[in-house]
Amino acid sequence: MTDGKVLYLVVCAAPPALQIDELVDLLMTDGWTVCVIATPTAATWIDRDALAMQTGYPVRYEWRQPGEPDALPKADAVVVAPATFNTINKWALGISDNVALGILNEALGLGLPIVLLPFVKRALTSHPAYKRSIDALRTSRVALAARPKELQEPGREEAPWPSVLTAIKNL
Q1: SS (H, E, C) 56-89
Q2: CA 25 to the chain's CA centroid
Q3: Which of 10, 15, 53, 155 is buried most deeply by CB count within 10 Å?
Q4: With contact defined as beta carbons under 8 Å apart, do 51 and 20 qualify?
Q5: CATH number for domain 5-62+73-169, candidates 3.40.50.1950, 3.60.15.10, 3.30.565.60, 1.20.1730.10
Q6: Residues whose CB falls within 8 Å of the CB of residue 74, separated by 6 or more in sequence, listed in order
Q7: Are the C-beta atoms of residues 56 and 24 closer than 8 Å to each other?
Q8: How far, in Å, CA of 35 to CA of 24, rounded?
Q9: Residue 116 contacts residue 163 (beta carbons within 8 Å)
Q10: What is the pTM of this model?
């Protein structure tokens, strides 16, 4: 049972994922019950046990077995941070080849409020597929978290979490 609004935090394998516990803290301080869902690669980067202790819920990264109950409460909103080129493009096409994408596709279909924080190499942001995907997601009412220009190139030390908090408050 949760005491507040439930937020699914979908984490992709980009450098800010290594600091995802900081975003979880900020969201929880803001009154959210946070459930972390990771892409398969991100699941190998993050400390799933520590995040489960922090949130009180297991980190989802694999499909449930048929008939297995969901360990997570229903979401009221979703944040995708950091979001990679691969996940953004697959999501925009409706591909559900991992549990994170399956949850994102369902959330979009349910009309849940969603915030997207892309973390994509500058060279890939000019790829035509990326531009189409961002446009398609915006058309589907996915809110983009604004980021300072200097954070567009992966490898920076500072995680861009303030823009996520601002975007989620504006939903």
Answers
A1: CCCCECCCCCCCCCCCCCCCCEEEEEEECHHHHH
A2: 15
A3: 10
A4: yes
A5: 3.40.50.1950
A6: 6
A7: no
A8: 9
A9: no
A10: 0.92
The length of the chain, given as a count of residues: 171
Q: Assign residue 124 a region (left: φ > 0; alpha: ψ between -120 and 50; beta: otherwise).
A: alpha
DSSP assignment letter at 155: T
For residue 3, the SS3 value is: coil
Do the Cβ atoms of 114 and 129 come closer than 8 Å?
no
CA distance 82 to 119: 6
Q: 71 is written with which tokens?
A: 């360990």
For the chain, domain boundaries? 5-62+73-169
